[in-house]
Write a structure and sequence with these properties.
The complex is a heterodimer. Helices cover 2% and strands 37% of the residues of chain A. Chain A is mostly beta strands. In chain A, the strands form seven sheets. In chain A, strands 3-2-1-28 form a four-stranded antiparallel β-sheet, with no helix packed on it. In chain A, strands 4-5-6-7 form a four-stranded antiparallel β-sheet, with no helix packed on it. Chain A starts with a strand and ends with a strand. The model of chain A has no long low-confidence stretch (mean pLDDT 96). Chain B is of the alpha+beta class. Chain B has a single domain, classed as Beta-grasp domain (Ubiquitin-like (UB roll)). The relative contact order of chain B is 0.25. The chains are: A mainly beta, B alpha+beta. At the A-B interface, loops of A face α3 of B.
Chain lengths: 371, 85
């Protein structure tokens, strides 16, 4: 098993075995590069894609086909179509990577900042704009401007492929809402009913929706969970109305945060890691006391899981891609912090231990089973 | 002609000083990309805009237009702006 840790200053790989007792550090890879996401292809279990840029250079994708031993740059990284008037958009960074359906080996999807959806058919070497949304007038309106997005740029994220059906896809935009396709990406439609927006804005307009992280339940792909700017939600398709399950979180903690993880074998079980979304949005753990919260009944109730985590004065938080699960039994959970710590639980969140400190700010953590 | 490459791009060129040809800055960058695949997109975006923190100087003068004509013997210096932390 390997943990793929993407940071503001490079990439690190943490290797372990099924016991998950010790980890072997491999890195840094590309020291100084900003990595937003590193993902293992679960179809061959040896190809890694990494979304990178630096503070000065344009964005690119690095690929490894030998489990991270060597890397090669993509021949054609994600880029918008060139506009005749020269006023078109340009990709600032690739933010999200998702492998395609198991029936489509070599297919990958990428989400960018500003919001764009891209597809590769050759294992991540050559990318092209995918689906009409990048240039669609309605979608461009929903995407808003750079000023409408997150502090380091508006993002397309949470690209989801239904494991039962490659024609069903979803993605989220911060801002711009959640969108679903049932025709393989030929068209998308908003899926925002029931979601709240910041007071004073029109919740019927996708522009004002900010899904932070959308996840599908692998064991029941009709079920979606979402950590939103305005709470935690669940949606059981074919219903269209999201239910705010974060209302059952402790009031003192609230239900604002970024990451959300769903148990791969139990659709009723999910984890969140709340942050302080009050006043000016400090984006720290509430009261400096970080905790994971788990629901085992699809959001009807939540239990705090903080054994082993700092009891106070820990002012970090966890970004939307920086929390994940492995496939073990019991399930292993992992998260990386904005302060460069990597934490794990080998028992589904009951106890936590820190497995690395002093890394750069962690942007993403993914677990994978190498061949 | 001689082209000076900034250190963040040495992973492509192997060093700071390279040779490339072109009758304009655009043609020169295209030639660099042929010799060192991928290098152009790190400097110029898909709308042919020089990226925010990159600068191109020809014979000591900053060039903002990729159509700027080049002549044999011109010295081209590509630098990254001093910015960030």
């Amino acid at each position: 098993m390997v943990l793929l840790v993407a940071t503001r200053k490079g990439a690190w790989l943490f290797h372990t075995d099924s016991a998950r007792r010790s980890f072997r550090l491999d890195g840094p890879h590309f020291l100084g590069h900003i990595f937003n996401h590193i993902v293992l292809d679960p179809r061959d279990r040896r190809t890694l894609l990494a979304a990178a840029k630096t503070g000065h250079l344009g964005p690119t994708i690095f690929r490894s086909t030998d489990r991270g031993k060597t890397w090669k740059e993509a021949a054609r990284p994600p880029a918008f179509a060139r506009a005749a008037d020269g006023k078109g958009r340009s990709v600032d960074h690739t933010f999200w990577l998702t492998p395609g359906h198991v029936s489509q080996p070599g297919v990958w999807f990428a989400g960018t900042s500003p919001q764009g959806l891209f597809r590769s058919e050759d294992g991540g070497s050559s990318w092209a704009p995918f689906s009409p949304i990048n240039e669609d007038a309605q979608y461009r309106e929903w995407m808003g401007t750079v000023q409408d997005g997150t502090p380091d740029g508006p993002k397309l994220h949470s690209i989801i492929i239904d494991p039962r059906d490659p024609n069903r896809m979803l993605f989220g935009m911060s801002g711009g809402g959640v969108h679903e396709s049932t025709d393989g990406g030929a068209s998308f439609a908003p899926l925002i009913d029931g979601l709240e927006v910041v007071e004073g804005f029109d919740r019927a307009n996708a522009t004002f929706h900010d899904p932070h992280c959308v996840r599908i339940s692998p064991s029941n792909p009709n079920r979606l969970y979402q950590q939103n700017h305005c709470g935690i939600y669940r949606l059981d398709r074919p219903a269209r109305e999201w239910v705010r399950i974060g209302r059952s979180m402790p009031k003192r903690v609230g239900d604002v945060g970024f990451p959300l993880v769903v148990h791969p074998r139990d659709a009723d079980t999910a984890w969140v890691l709340p942050m302080d979304g009050g006043t000016v949005w400090p984006r720290t753990s509430p009261d400096g006391k970080p905790a994971v919260f788990v629901t085992r009944n699809a959001g009807a109730s939540w239990q705090r899981q903080d054994a082993g985590l700092p009891e106070q004065h820990a002012w970090w938080t966890v970004k939307r891609q920086a929390m994940c699960a492995d496939a073990g039994d019991p399930l292993g959970l992992y998260f990386g912090t904005t302060s460069g710590e990597l934490w794990m639980s080998a028992d589904e969140g009951r106890k936590w231990k820190c497995i690395a400190r002093h890394l750069p700010e962690i942007y993403a953590v993914e677990a994978g089973e190498l061949a | 002609m001689k082209v000076l490459i900034p250190s963040p791009l040495h992973s492509y060129t192997g060093g700071p000083r390279v040779e490339a040809e072109g009758e304009s800055v655009a043609a020169l960058l295209a030639d660099l990309d042929r010799r060192y695949p991928g290098i152009r997109f790190r400097m110029v975006d898909e709308q042919d805009r020089i990226r925010r923190h990159m600068r191109v100087f020809v014979n000591g003068e900053q060039v903002l237009d990729l159509r700027h004509a080049l002549e044999r013997g011109d010295e081209v210096v590509i630098v990254q702006a001093l910015s960030g932390g």
